[in-house]
Amino acid sequence: MDEANTKAAILRDFLDLLDWQIPQNTQLEYSVEAFGQTYKVDYALILDGTPVAFLEAKGADTALTADHDEQLSSYMMNKNVNYGILTNGKQYRFFQRRVDASNVNVQQVGDIVLEDLPNRLAVVKAFEKDAIESGESGKILGRINELREARRTLEAEKDDLAVELSNVLADEVSDAISSLAETQAKEMIDRLVADIESEIDADSTESPKDGDIGGHSPDPADSHIVGRIKRSEIEGDNDAKVAVFPTKRSGLEFLRENNAWGFVRIGQNPEFVAMYLSEDVREIKYVARVSDIVSATKADLARPREAYFESASDEAQAGFDPDQQVVVFEEGSLYELEDPVPYETKYPQSLQYTTLGALRTAETTDDML
């Protein structure tokens, strides 16, 4: 489609998705001076009579280029507009004008193909009318920028950071654990990078509905989550050992399907497992009683092992380790907590242990980790 058809068929619906309405708060063909000439921005998004964002459209038959990026950036700089979107209906590039002391520039904060928009709502939400009007947009994009910078630092300095962490543990505990601690520190950094990527690309600010997680949607009737329970109602001794695992929301599918958790390394025999949901949820939200711990190669799973790895088709590429284990739960013991434990400052970046008593009484994660 050419530009006119792209606008008619796609972009008005896209603007409607962001709650920008024509003509109430969206002006077409807005005049802007750039490169010594007067140009027309396709859509100016208006609040209180002032443009706060520009949307520049190209035809679906036109590939987006760096020249298009520069064009929109010039429009934004000329009119002191903080937000911009460049799109051909198939690809969406999001921009933010940033002011740092005397330095003013426009940065790209997202480059998303149409099919991936539902998985990148954290960025999209920043361009909604209410978010820009309330100032929430700056907070959303500021956090995304900070997380991206943190990810770059972790990736670039992974080895040095792992050595520093292992040295701290060696000084505080024992030199004997130095080499082990360095290996574990690298794995922790890898998990932290993955969690950062997950939060940057968070697909929603709401809790998922049953069957909406991952590429496979089990029948809710087949879910092993038997219901909801208050922490005070969990039966067991206060000193019973609880293994606390972190998981992304996609990991809930494994719980539901298998009444188990994997693929992990676990050196102790806990009586319970508690699941901490990372991303935007940040709560200890599920609990189950442990029945058995078995080798991942012998575990009876609902699907083949490789089906649970998203990034590769074969186990070696996906990071499968034959020494990993699967923690099997007692039948009918997997519950969602009615009173989940909210995050404060501490959260399990990897397996941690606590007690059932601490889980029952904790007001935040800091009270049990």
Automatic annotation (TrEMBL):
Keyword annotations of the record: Coiled coil
InterPro entries: HSDR_N (IPR029464)
Coiled-coil segments: 144-171
Residue segments, region Disordered: 201-224
UniProt domain Type I restriction enzyme R protein N-terminal: residue ranges: 25-103
Superkingdom, taxonomy of origin: Archaea
KW Coiled coil (keyword) present: yes
Protein name in UniProt: Type I restriction enzyme HsdR N-terminal domain-containing protein
